[in-house]
Amino acid sequence: MDRMLTRAEEYLLLAVIKLKENAYPVSIFDEIGKTTGASWTMGAIYFPLQRLEEKGLLTSLLGDPTPERGGKSRRFYRITEAGLEALTAARRAQEGMWRGIEWARIK
Amino acid sequence: MGADQMNPNPHPGAPRPPLVGRWLLSRLLPSRLRPTAVGDFAELYHRIFLKDGRVKAALWYWREVIRSVPDFFRAAVYWRITMIGNYLKMAFRLMRKRPEFTLVNIGGLAIGLAGCILAFLFIQDEYSFDRFHDHVERIYEVRSEIGTGNDAITLETRGPVGPALATDFPEVEASARLAGADVIIRAGEKIFLRKGLGVDPSFFSIFNFPLVLGDPASALSDPYSVVLGRETARLCFGASDPVGRTISLKVGDRTADYRVTGIAEKIPDRSSLDFDLLLPLVRVKGPFVDQWVAGPDGSPVETYCFVRLREGADANALAARFPATLDKRISTGGKPGRHFVVPFAAYHRGARDYPFSTILKSRGSPQTSVLLTSIAFLILLVAGLNFMNLSAGAAASDRVKEIGLRKVFGADRNDLLRQFRFEGAFAGLAALAGGFGLASLVLPAFNRFVGKGLRLDFLKIGWPLAALILLAVLVGAAAGSYPGWALTRSRPADLFRGRFFLGRPGGFNRAFALIQFGISIFLLITAFFLYRQHRFLVTADPGYDTDRIAVLDLRQASPASPEFSRFLPDLKSRLMRHPEIRGVSGSGSALNSWSAWFLKRGSSPAPELIRFNNVDLDYFNVLGLRLRQGRWFSPEIASDASGAVVVNEAFARLYAPSQPIGKNLAEVFGRKFPYRIIGVVGDFHFDSMHTAIQPAMMILGEEPPQWAYVRLGGEGIGRAMAAVEKEFKAAAPDLPFLYSFLDEDTARLYEKEARWSLMVGLVSLFAVLIACSGVFGLAIQITARKKKEIGVRKVMGASVRQIAGLINGEFLKTAAAAGLLAWPVSFLAVKKILAGYPYRISPAIWVFPASTAALMILVLLTINLHTLKAARTDPAETLRSE
Fold this sequence. Notes:
Chain A contains 5 helices and 2 strands, in the order αααββαα. By secondary structure, chain A is mostly helical.
């Protein structure tokens, strides 16, 4: 892993893990919006998803078309071993950075 | 991915997002994302629609689409870059996989592009002639005109016209007069003949010929100053500084010492004006050049006159005002007062076609660039088609399985097409690089060919380089998209089974072959007739003998010196002592540069052009002219020495049609022309065969001869010439011995034709080779397509010959059709080219079918390299069960 995950990528990976079998852009969008409370655009999700997939941190497969989607398929995502490793590395880095800082003092 | 395509609206009950928004969204999305992302948006829309209704859902949809634009844009750019990387990798792999194919294919296109580059350089050069002069667009030559309409004849201007224009018209910023002269330089032991140009000091303020040494403002103000060209200076003074030194020059018949006041930089190749040294005008034209009235011998002094106009001045309107001030002054001489201007910038493109010009370099004809451009275009067309064809052939054999597999794995058709286009464009660029390499390799040969000093300088090409790159990319992409289109259209299952059609059988393929064959036949025919025309010009009887005749250049001999009148008779008697020398004759003008008179006939307003030459008694025999009527000059008849002329048939036809012998020409041209015709000789080409024979007359030596013709006999030309040289040196120890042979001089007149017939010949050979390699590719495709058919036929008992004939027949039909298409086009083209020659061959009809037959034979030889193999294949192999 030569490059650290961005915050958006981290969230996406986490959302994909949480959503288990049902991780596709709409549900990921819902999940991130709900949890972070920030306003995300749909478009902002695709690009990092693609990059993550290309780097091998995510895999995807096409599902069946459904009527409310105008007959289009969903693309479901699943995290890979490499994705899990990257997440662990990101978490370790973050904890390391926070170590020794007292929460009360910065507040 | 195909669900929506198969059924446009499979779920009519579901609410659909706004149409325009949906369309915009799908435009913005990279193709890979498109299906799922549109679905995602639709799903969210659907949800909001159910909760908050149509309006809110539509608003949300639009907001979301617009907010996503930057993200999508980023994604699109990112994907493009990744994809191009992948395409490059693929392209390299393919090239490495089939090196010899890559070489043939890209090499062919490279040759085509190299042709384009050379043609482009040639044309750029044609149009950049004289551009090194700062004010080239404002430089004009002023000329006078006599006669009207088609009969108008243009002349130089009267001497003082130049200065008068500069003082009378504020629009004329500067004027300079020019006159050419052969100058004999004597530097110590050495004698050179150089091209001199007599000019006004203002010459340097109109033209940019920079001086290495010396000051242009004052260089020619002294009446005996000279500016030497760099080469000439080196020749005379070696490495030492020549400025301030004196040099002995002979101009016309006057020898004098001149002081070197400047050294001119080498004249650029792209200059119409050409000179080895510059002199004050008065040294060339004499002291009467500044006088309005006629000079000492009664004829007015005329010079070339150039002006530089003020910016924005209308040259033609200005020229119309010239007579207002000039006529008053000229009136004493009775010179008609019409003047016009020729833009100097258009000189090289043939704006000024004047056969007697002594100051201009010989130029390429405007026809040349048209011919060259069309040839370059044809090469590119043939090479481009071939590139497409070979790519298709290769795709048919190598890439079928790859594409099939990628389709199975869900590759988008547009993606595949893009890849093909990219590969094509990449190959096009590689070919362009090769083309540049090739062009710079053959450039020296090409330069010799077209007689130019072209250079391939990447930095100086500028926008045309961008155009060439674009051209290469477009040709490559177009070539790549055709097999891509055919391959990606087929179903994967068909591809795996090797069933794949490049278009309809015979459709595109036949069109390719048709065009290639057609161009090949066209070029073959054109090359053949160009060759024949050149042979005709060289071998046709010019009406005089050219064999074993030496031409001696006597222009350096000074007619003013007392010995001169004895020089030629002395040389003659010395030479005639040698048995191998059959005859010697002096002549005032060399062949191909006879003098011209403009004579007025009776009441006709326009003067007529009569060519004339001063000859001696031996001219007739030495050159082997043919007598038609009357007699040649005779030493016994005293009256022949004054007032007798021998004319050519063209003259007799025009001016003395009924009874030429004894005709007094004063009746035709007025009392000032008291000549009587004593004989008529057969028309002969005293000019090159590029012009029709004009009326001409010969007078017995009134002026000193400038040239001598020596007719050699016997076996050894070398021995005879050694004798000529020995006697020449003995008769005139100070003169350089300059000679040439008449047959070589004559052949040199048609060098342009020799070059062109060779060039078109090579190009047609190249086109045929390319067509053959293309045909070879086609044969591979066709036999691949007909594998089963061939197998079945063999099983049914067809022989190898019958099967090969099946495929050959297809190509022969195409070649025949191409011939039928190419014949009329080539006939017209050849006719147009030949129309430029007054003496020409007539296109023989047999050449047309013969060229087609030749192509057919070559094509058969090529394809049978492959078809015979295919026909011999064991049917068991091709008919294996699937």
